[in-house]
Amino acid sequence: MSNKDNNTGKLNQFERSQFFFITLAVFTGLYLSRFELITVHAADFILPFLMLMLYGVFLQVSVKNLGQAFTNIKFTGLGVGINFIWNPLLAFGLAILFLSDLPDIQIGFIMLMVTPCTDWYLLFTALARGNIALGVSILPWKLLLQLLLLPIYLFVLVGQLIEIDPTIIGEGVIFVLVIPFVAAFITNKVILSITNSNLEWLENKVYPKIEIFEFLFLCLAITAMFSSQGKVLFDQPSLFFRMLVPVLLFYSVNLILGNIISYLIGFSYQDNVALNFAILARNSPLALAIAVSIFPDRPLIPLALAIGPLIELPMLALISKFFLVINKYNLFNHG
Description:
Blueprint: H1 13-16, H2 18-32, H3 36-60, H4 64-69, H5 73-98, H6 103-113, H7 120-127, H8 132-156, H9 166-195, H10 199-235, H11 238-265, H12 269-280, H13 284-294, H14 300-328
Helix pairs in contact: 2-10, 3-9, 3-10, 3-13, 5-6, 5-8, 5-11, 5-12, 6-14, 7-12, 7-14, 8-9, 8-12, 9-13, 10-14, 11-12, 11-14, 12-14, 13-14
């Protein structure tokens, strides 16, 4: 998202085109998977591209928003509770129920569902005319907590399915997440020191340019992912449909839950939209980066994480339209 502190609800041309370019990256990768020379080497580029993408994400996350989240305890508490307590339990239950005979796809599904989105959920919040500022306020918490909790989820939930060495998980998290995070922190400090500027200048002048850099490497990673695994997907198209049912159920259950809770608490339409997209959208690039790092010999796990956005992005687009209909006919009101 360009300028994550934007509260206007208006989308620029770059933001409106993101879904198109992600879809283009998927189909480009599938086409390139027909060429063996590309397929053999494409996997080598996935992790570097994702690390560069995450570096761009971390550059744009402002710690000051941690304090802003405290101004709305209900929203922050619900967002954190649903994302980090309810969603892992729901994901594990759906994986066991629908994917019990496909352990690698189970693992990919669980990894996808326990990592809440830290970027494009704001795009869909804006599309549905929700409260973007409120959505932004929880972003640092979502990022911080998933960095801390993802190793635990992997060990506790995924460890029930396959044997995992905790040191490999730790090394993967450090390599994929901590290094880009520290590099981004140092970069921000150096830029501010050299230019004698303040954080506001950084957010207004630098972050919007980083946004394009971040999105470019996300698209390149998606292209590389589907280039390397496209043949597997073509050979086993049923994998997509096996993922489809639990993913749709995850979104359906949480959409109903989010709306009921928002209504009972008395959230406005705008706050309800912000809450729903904060608990629905998933962070597939981050989960994919971890999977590529710690499961290099299990290609179906990152493939499941690559399939996820093929279902998720159309779902989020439909949900944004659903909310616009609710808003048009004033169906979400309290009396």
